[in-house]
Known about the structure:
Elements lengths: L16 H14 L3 E3 H7 L3 H9 L4 E2 L5 E3 L7 H11 L5 E2 L1 H8 L9 E5 L6 E2 L2 E5 L7 E4 L2 E4 L1 H8 L5 H13 L5 H10 L4 H8 L8 H12 L6 E2 L10 E3 L4 E6 L6 H17 L3 E6 H19 L4
Parallel strand pairs: 5-7, 12-13
Antiparallel strand pairs: 1-3, 2-3, 4-5, 6-7, 8-9, 10-11, 11-12
Amino acid sequence: MGGEWFNGSAYPEEWTTRGRERRLQVLGGRQMHLVAAAQLTSLGFGKSVVHDRVAAGRWFETPFAGVYSLAPPPLSRLQTIRAGALSCGHPSLPSHWSATEVLEIAEPPLYPVHITRPGGNGRRRTNLVVHRSHVPPCDTTGRDGILCTSAARTIVDLAAIASPEELERILIAADSLRILNHRRLEELARDRRGAKALRSLLFGAPITVRSGRETELLQAFRRAGLPEPIVNGFPEGFEVDYHWKELRVVVELDGYRFHGGRERMNSDRERDQMLALAGWRTLRFTRDQVAADADECARRTAAFAYLYL
C-alpha cells in the first residue's frame, strides 16, 4: 500500500552483489525510485552501506526519516507523498488532503503528508500526520502506482476538517472525473460522525453556518447602498439566498452544490421560472465571481434591481 515490499527474487544470483543491485533497481522502479530502510535491510544492504552511499551522493535522503531516493532531488509532489507512505511501513495509504493530490481532485499544501494505517499512533510527526484507521479494500484506489484512499473515503475523511465550500469543490471535481462511487459515499457519510456538512451537501439539509462568500456578498450589498435583504428567505415558498420584497428581486449564489448535477440544475430552473411568473426577477452569481470582486457583483445587483423602477 505505502510501497511494495520485495519478497524473494526471480534471479538465481539473488544473494550475489549483482543480484542484490538488480533487485534494488526492480524495487525502486516499482516505487518511483524510493526505498525504505527496512526494505534495504531485507535486500541485504547493511546500515554502513546505506550511510556510505548517502555520503557519496549515490543515494539521497528524503524529508522522511528512513526513506531514500535512488535518483537525485528534487522529489516530485507524488514522490514526496509516496515517501511519506513508505516511512510509515506496510500497510500505509495516502489519505485526507494527500489523497486529493494523488486523485487530482484538489491542490492542497504538500505538507504535512497525511497517511492512514491500521496501527498508526494518530499523532503528527515532522512533515507527516498519521491517522489510525482500518481502510477496507473497497475504499482504496490508485494512480501512477500509488495506492491511496478512494474518492468517497477521502471526502468522508475530510468532512470533519474541510469547509463546506472546500467539500463542494472536491465533490464536483471527483464527480467530473467519474471516480466517485455515489452509493459508497452516501453509506460512509451516514455512518461517520463529524460529517454533518457533508450530509448537508449530499442530502439537501440546510447548512446552518453561512459560507464566507455569502457573508462577503452581504457586506458588499450594504456598501452599494442596497436595502438590507432577507437572507435564506422563502418568497413564494422557495428558499433563496437573498431577496428584497419591495424590489421583487432575488439573488442566488451558485457554488459547487453537489446534490446537484442534472437534478439540481432542473430544480433551480424550475424555481427561477415559477418566481418569474410570480413577478420576481432572479440574478445569479458564482462563488468565483464573488471571490474576484464582490463589490462589482453588488453594483450589478443594484443596477438590476432598479432597472425597471
